[in-house]
Amino acid sequence: MIREICSVTYGRLIWQKYKRRFCLDEHTVVLVLAGENRKVDYYALAHLEDYVKRKVASRGVILAADKRALGQARKMKFPFDTEVCRVKENEVLRLHDYYCFEEYFDNIVFTFIRRPEANMLWKLLRETEVNEEEVACLGCYCLRRMPEKKQDARENGRQEAYGYQKGPRHGA
Amino acid sequence: MYEEEHRLVEIKVRNLVKEGRLEGKHIYLFGVSDSTRQIIGMLRDFHIEPLGVLDNDLSKKDSYCSRVRVLPVEGIKEIRDRRNVFLIYSIFWREMASQLENLAVQRENIVCLYKKRDSLRKQFAMAGRGRKIYKRLLKKYGDVPVFICPYTGTGDVYLIGTFWRQYLERTGIKDYVFVVIGGACRKVARLFDIRNVEVLGTQDEGKYLIKYYMLCPQEIRLKILNDGWWQNRCANPMQWFRGYKRLYFTELFRKFVFGLPDDAMPEKPGLEKEGHAAREVERIFHDNRLAAGKTVVLSPYANTLADLPDSFWEVIARELSGRGYVVCTNSSGQKELPVKGTVPIFFPLDLAPQFIRKAGYFIGVRSGLCDVISAAKAKKIILYDRRNRFFLSSAYEYFSLNHMGLCEDAVEIEFDSKKIDECLGRIMAEF
Prior knowledge:
The complex is a heterodimer of chains A (172) and B (431). Chain A is of the alpha/beta class. Chain A has eight helices and four strands, in the order H-E-H-H-E-H-E-H-E-H-H-H. Chain A has one domain. The longest helix of chain A has 20 residues, at 2-21. Chain B has helices at residues 3-18, 34-45, 93-102, 120-141, 154-171, 183-190, 203-215, 249-257, 276-287, 310-322, 352-359, 368-373, 395-399, 401-404, 420-428; strands spanning 26-30, 52-54, 64-65, 68-71, 84-88, 110-112, 146-148, 177-181, 197-200, 222-224, 295-299, 326-330, 343-345, 360-365, 379-385, 389-390, 393-394, 411-415. In chain B, a hairpin with a 2-residue loop joins strand 16 and strand 17 (393-394). Chain B starts with a helix and ends with a helix. The interface between A and B is large, with 39 and 39 residues.
């Protein structure tokens, strides 16, 4: 138990570091891209605006350890201030462990679909008709309903930018 | 709301009343939820009736939450009126408050009842308490897996019971501890062949156990028997898909709690016809002068769903009495008063199916009791408010006994609270 307490405490220290570094407050949302599922990460980025609106925030901070996820985030344009930053994988994991133990910030979202152990989003994708966009909107952002569809042209443009087209659903 | 939170909210409400902050005010609550229902109950203890419950989900507009009208935020004409007080208890309190502030509601008119975060130290202490509970269980039962039903919902425990045998068979688990919160859940578990049922006195104790699990998942062989728990959006986000794309109560438990295949169906408990249960039911019938096969049990109370006016139940009682039925109310104390003109009765949950079978008739709003009596061979009329939503579907779609596979013979009626007479007519047509 001591080891886990240390790990969570370490997560808290990382969080405090980020909080200072990115000036995080209730007007900012933080999106942590897990890099576990590329499409979930993509849709989380595509719907970040909806999340910002819902949280009545005005700024976004996107963190990722995964290079590809980071690349996705940097190509995306948002109608509000955003900061994209590469962080260490270990820090992302500790931050997430800490969040699972204590929800320390209302406006932070992780796109993990397999972490912690009880997270069944991967199974939801594999065994039901729920797709990655819905996982991002309902599961990660808890938007409680799917937002209106964005204009196709804009969406297709983005998808091309990230190297895939809408198609059959894939597992995690 | 967990017990500790419930106590804190009660204190906050009492203080608001003492300070006179609610006197002569137009009180609104924000968000249709169980917690909101509980707060309405607290206000009513002080004879305060809220004017409305606000909700951004337009499908809930004009429905009722504990008999209080549900309105969209835009539905309040003079939202800036200084006499308005908005009470909020929700994990989404921050955006709710911001939404009101953006409509120029004064900050002092918004009261957040949601608790402040516990310090990390306190949370470690909770996990430590959970560890003690876990060690106590291991000492008593040996090194076996521990299963916990984290809520006091009897319907949840019943559904778990219906899959339990198949789950054990599939996983090869022979020995285990089955932890429930409160005596009512133990009684429901007793209907099934579930061994080593351990009762925790409070939901808080269950919370500690889960806290320990979240801290040390590798140290503890614990499985949480629910599709969502503890308001933790991150640990298990399945609850946000409730009712989405046909992911209803049974489907979510079957697939995501138990990992059973789609063809696994809920199994009814075996109800003994003789023995202790039968004798006990016989005794209640005799003591209350009830008539076998000619008794109607009314169940007007539910924690999560539906609200019908007292007059609705009184009409049913009068009509059925006139037709020669003995009408009684399942009533368990001051908070659940019997319907006027009916016999107040109380039967323990582990006798409920046998009791309803002997009575012959049951009319109730959808509650956990409906799950428990679903296996009884009787006329079961279950009522759902058409406008009542549960997460992403209607309450009926999510909780229908027939669709859940708990029975095939329930008469399930969706009523429109504005057209209560229609519902009465449909009920009476069944007699």
